[in-house]
Amino acid sequence: MSKDELKIQKRKNEDDVVVDKKKHKKDKKDRKSKKDKRDKKEKKSKKHDETETVDEATEENSTPVSVNSNGSYTQSDDLTNVPQSEIDTFYEENEVTVDDNGSSKLRPLLSFNHVKLNKKIQDEISKFPKPTPIQSVSWPYLLTGRDVIGVAETGSGKTFAFGVPAINNLVDANGQLKYKKGIQVLVISPTRELASQTFDNLVILTDKLGLHCCCVYGGVPKDPQRTQLKVSQVVVATPGRLLDLLQEGSVDLSNVNYLVLDEADRMLEKGFEEDIKNIIRETASVGRQTLMFTATWPKEVRELASTFMERPVKVSIGNRDELTANKRITQIVEVIDPFKKDRKLLDLLKKYHSGPKKDEKVLIFALYKKEASRVERNLQYNGYQVAAIHGDLSQQQRTQALNEFKSGKCNLLLATDVAARGLDIPNVKTVINLTFPLTVEDYVHRIGRTGRAGQTGTAHTLFTEQEKHLAGGLVNILNGANQPVPEELKKFGTHTKKKEHSAYGAFFKNVDMNAKPKKITFD
Ligand SMILES: Nc1ncnc2c1ncn2[C@@H]1O[C@H](COP(=O)(O)OP(=O)(O)OP(=O)(O)O)[C@@H](O)[C@H]1O
């Protein structure tokens, strides 16, 4: 693009921003009036029910009562008796930050005995030695009924962090369903595979309590899903199929009062944003508890997130304001000529997937499905048995590939970013990034398929000049995890390029939405 063309393109984008500014203002106004209405309604309903009054307790040891109809949390005596020094050590060791929006600070649970959950849930979860830090810190808030943003590294137990309170809140002290009507918990996931995995985790808990959980995603017949939706209290769904079923009137979300956006930053990106708004509109607007969980929480999505939440508590484990990777993963980055990648991949497989390591699980990421298909053929030609997951395959093929990789029937998986987030595959020893992803956030999620639940792992990344605009971000991640930074990578410059906006591309800039639009003249 010539300099002049670039200027015109920039102006065009600024024009778009101006137009969008007006839309944004209108949206903001609509949201505000909706929020005011909601507040009024809420105040009214709170007057009617004294038990739902917020107790603005401010002391760390105080016992708050419920914030909305979901909550019923009382701090146990055991937890009250823990010396403050132990709590402080826990916060420090796990780099915990709690931004509680000016309300009560609740103590983290240092053991499963520090909280009284439904007995059957407690028994199930006690198979683990103790809560992970994100579970320790977020559960008291979630059991109280608060909106929570939970940000913690990949593989740190976020599914049960939002899942255990979700199911526990559904039943009373005797294990009886509190509210009889319809779907009350909705978890939205970006991919079919992740939705299915989350379902597998939650259904263990709902089965124990005699409740129903179902999973709704595309690429498979709708009829069984329609039937399941009629009897389920808990639903895990991908946005596309859920909207489809909403539009045809097969699902009623008006009783949903516990809503989770898993991989929340992904769900709030352009592309998903409209779907998410349309889904949330259908859920209970009064007293709904809204949760956002993720390992990466870029600034770009935070404002939008706040429009769906009421005074959320933000819980971060590790320094999550900066983009950081799981520190138990050894990260190796090699800068290479793009034409040498195929040869290099075969060398890497010799290193990580042959001899004594031939049964170790290796996950290879390509960027596009065409690339994935080509590399799959190339690996097969070279004698490797490889499973593949990408958008060109049928859902049945995708599910089969993932199952074979999980079970160890096939220990080599080639995937696009459809497998980058959330998938919890046991014992993945190595992640190879054959082509670098589009964002550094995706890099953190991809490599997070190894080193899960306290284990270690290796991520080997091939980086080419084509991705040099992401070099600065990658250097920061490597430095943040005390990993070596290759000299060739530094040569690309360490300045961090702003994340590209999905609509305005590299020309995106944060604009003051209240400033008057400038008149743009072309010379
Ligand atoms: N308290 C616990 N102690 C030990 N392991 C746990 C605990 N809770 C959950 N796990 C296990 O940790 C693994 C990772 O959990 P999970 O998939 O929820 O991670 P995540 O934080 O959601 O990761 P990602 O960011 O990649 O989505 C799972 O195998 C899960 O069973």
TrEMBL record:
Biased composition (Basic and acidic residues): 1-20
GO cellular-component term (any): preribosome, large subunit precursor
Annotated GO biological process: endonucleolytic cleavage in ITS1 upstream of 5.8S rRNA from tricistronic rRNA transcript (SSU-rRNA, 5.8S rRNA, LSU-rRNA)
Catalysed reaction equations from the record: ATP + H2O = ADP + phosphate + H(+)
GO molecular function ontology, one term from the record: hydrolase activity
Regions of compositional bias (Basic residues) in chain numbering: 21-46
Polar residues biased stretches: 61-81
Keyword field: ATP-binding, Helicase, Hydrolase, Nucleotide-binding, Nucleus, Ribosome biogenesis, RNA-binding, rRNA processing
Organism domain of life: Eukaryota
EC numbers, comma separated: 3.6.4.13
UniProt cross-references to Gene3D superfamilies, sorted A to Z: P-loop containing nucleotide triphosphate hydrolases
Subcellular location, record wording: Nucleus, Nucleolus
Domain Helicase C-terminal residue range list: 344-493
Xref: SMART domains: DEXDc, HELICc
Pfam families the UniProt entry points to: DEAD, Helicase_C
Function: ATP-dependent RNA helicase required for 60S ribosomal subunit synthesis. Involved in efficient pre-rRNA processing, predominantly at site A3, which is necessary for the normal formation of 25S and 5.8S rRNAs.
Record family assignment: Belongs to the DEAD box helicase family. DDX5/DBP2 subfamily.
Protein name from the UniProt record: ATP-dependent RNA helicase DBP3
Organism (species): Tetrapisispora phaffii (strain ATCC 24235 / CBS 4417 / NBRC 1672 / NRRL Y-8282 / UCD 70-5)
